[in-house]
TrEMBL record:
GO biological process: microtubule-based movement
Compositionally biased tracts (Low complexity): 45-83, 447-466
Source organism: Polarella glacialis
Family named by the database record: Belongs to the TRAFAC class myosin-kinesin ATPase superfamily. Kinesin family.
The name this protein goes by in its record: Kinesin motor domain-containing protein
Binding positions (ATP): G375, Q376, T377, G378, S379, G380, K381, T382
GO MF terms held by the record: ATP binding; microtubule binding; microtubule motor activity
Lineage per the UniProt record: Eukaryota, Sar, Alveolata, Dinophyceae, Suessiales
Coiled coil: 206-264
Amino acid sequence: MRDARVVWLATPRQRERGGQRNERERERERERETGKERKNGVLDAGRGAPAASQASRAPPRQTGPPSGAAAGPAGRFAANRRPVSPGKTTICSAASGPSAAASAAATKKASAAWANALWDQQQREEAILEALVARRSSIAGCRDRREKAQLRAFSLGQELQEAATGHPERMASLSEAVAIASEGLEVVLAMASGDAAKGHGLTQRLGVEASRLAELQQQLAELQARELAEGTGRRGLVRRSQELQAVAEAAQSAQDERAGLLAQNGLLARRLNNEILGLKGNFRVFCRLRPQRPRSDEESKETLKVDMQEDRQGLTVFAAPQRNVTGMSEHTSSWDFEFDHVFRPNAPQAIVFEEIALLVQSALDGYRVAIFAYGQTGSGKTHTMGGSGLDAKEDEHAGMIPRSVDLIFREVEQLQQTGWSFEVHASMAEVYNEAVLDLLASRQHSQNSASSTSDSSSTEASFAMSSERERSEAKFVSGDPQLGFRRVPVKDASAVHALLRRAHRERHVAATTANERSSRSHVVFQLSLIGRCEVPGQQREVSGLLSFVDLAGSERLHSTGASGERLKEAQHINRSLGALGDVIEAIGRKSSCRGSASALAVHVPYRNSRLTMLLRDSLGGDSKTLFFVNVSPLLEHLGETLSSLRFASKVHACCASAQRHVLVADGDTAHAPGAR
Ligand SMILES: Nc1ncnc2c1ncn2[C@@H]1O[C@H](COP(=O)(O)OP(=O)(O)OP(=O)(O)O)[C@@H](O)[C@H]1O
């Protein structure tokens, strides 16, 4: 376009002047060349046959004249001016004389040299001519081509001028279009530039978004993988939990079955236990001899002579030998007694407890069990029942009560594993001069909390806060002592031990104010046991009662010579012990005629004393009763010892009689309330 525009911009006048100048130059050039040709006229002849000139150039420089005439200008020149051979020159000189010959030879030689030089010059000129001819030919060719090109350019210029002249409007419109297109292009370029900037920003954002997207995709993939894994894990957990549930159900059913079997086994064991007890007798009497206390005033006193046979559960008590009136002979009185078991003075508490453990356990089967300690003052009743201070749970001297409490709660714990649950209540009362005192009553306000916890110190502290007046006023139970009794719920053995310690202190306080009242009163400690079995198909409820009775020391009024308060106490004690004996004797008779109409006619005089009223539920019927008769080792207590042993022997006789009747009437059946 630009070339076209440049060509188009030259004016016709300019182009005409350019053409005239070129033409004049060409004319001048032709004249110069024509002039040259005139000067070189010699050469003009050979211009028409350059090929022949070329061919004549072949023979090289020679020492003699050419052998023949050469064709063409070179040949002609050679024919006119042939170089002279020196040999021929010598021959010529010999014919005309020696000096002439020498001169001729020299001339010949110079002529040969001149000819040769001329020959060389001629050769060079020919070469130049040939080059000139070739150049001229080339120039002529160029000139022709230039002329043709000038003609062609001229015609094209004319065509262009015609085209420009004939289509100005189109050119203008094209130019305008080009301008518009240029503007449009610029706009497009500007837009493209803006778009490029925008595109760059967008590209950057796109990059950020792309990386964010990639990140999100990766997170999604991770989540999906995790979800897959969790899904697998969840499925595994569900499967595992189902398996565990199945195992748990199987274990539960096995446990139920085991519990059922255990319950049945326990039941059978207890039935067997109770049958053994039944065979041994529901009334039993154990005799326990107290050892002589070392390092006491007893060491200097005469001891009672007692003979115990190995092959039987009995003993023979000997009086001191007595001389007859003449003094010539000596007589020793002796008394034989039979009991269910006799413990020697050195028998430890644990051995004694072994003998009563089954009896204690039967209270958990719904039996009413009563364990009495009977004997004169200082014979070891309290020691047998409570041990050293009633709180020696872990002590080897711990008595039957703390050991029984521990056993009961151990058993309760084991029974819980077989589907049993127990409610245990404790009560403690004292019967003094036919009055019943509730030893747990004064702290009733704190009993519930005290019983539900094994923190005995807090209960003791609260108990200590109440004044002695409050305690003494609150403790007396009027009316039916069984109804007035407070039964305190206890959760474990330590709660019971705490109660026992406090009751012991309470009793001790009373003893200081009432002068050895402890030995002049009966103390009754009871645990009521209500058990429920929840095993399917074996549901039942049992209610047992375990009573420990530390009886007041028996006393022979005529031998002690007591009077006043002591006499009154002794009378109450003897009366209540007599009433107890009567009740036991009536129970024995009733048991003897079990199953007959006369059994109904036997009246059991429970209401003859506060003690028997209190123990009404613990005596008779299907209850199990054990009497410890404690014996002092001192000879000086022989009278009291014999009295106690006779009382115990009477009880044992009744029990033995009743037992024989039971065995005859019921065969080997032992009555088990829990088995009903
Ligand atoms: N089996 C025994 N072994 C060792 N010491 C004993 C035994 N029995 C009793 N004692 C001791 O004999 C003394 C009197 O015993 P204990 O107080 O138990 O008699 P008690 O019959 O309860 O008297 P009381 O009727 O006056 O209360 C106590 O010091 C006691 O420790």
